[in-house]
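The authors assume throughout that readers already know how a fold can be written as discrete tokens. What matters is that the chain and its backbone geometry are given together, residue for residue. A single example would do more here than another paragraph of explanation. For illustration, here is how one protein appears when written out as sequence plus structure tokens.
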Amino acid sequence: MSSSNRRLESAPAPSSKPGWNTGEDRLTNGNHMFHFLTSIMRDGTGEPDFPNVRFPVTAEDIESAERRIGNPFPEQLRKFFCQIGSGFLKAPQSDTSRTDFKYINRFLDPDEVAELFLGEDEDIFPSEGFDDGELPFFEIGDRLYLVLRDGQVCWPFGDVISQNLLAFVTELANNPRFYHEAYGLE
């Protein structure tokens, strides 16, 4: 694994990186790609103990994290932050009751994404790190994260789970354990 500094120095310009925002999309874009989640994810500022909660993220939060990592976030991740924020998605669409969950299923906030990408917090950084071009965004368990690689949702150093963030989130809303079941992790 290369160091965080090497990753940033060798990071291609956003326009040449597949899956990364080229700057054409604005933070205030009217696209409502992820708004379907608002019906199953409660505002976490009012009900943080609910299994599906979301916490607001500001444009300043997003831009600050992007400056830290030296690149804009991938377009779909930026839209997710703008429309949903961060939070937990543990129960399927049809089940909004509280149950005992043994998995985290947490969408990181922009600052946490930057911390992990840069390796700034060894308490949460996985021992194997991340490969060049991988951007952690989703916590499964203790020091275990899914990453965006070329716009696809992937296991770190491994297989593609979904072709893009929207496909991942849509499947997750229907079955929050689909990525476990698909890879025999049950």
About this structure: The chain is about 25% helix and 15% strand. The first strand starts at residue 42 and ends at 43. The helical segments are 4-10, 59-69, 75-83, 110-118, 165-174, 178-182. The chain has a mean pLDDT of 79.
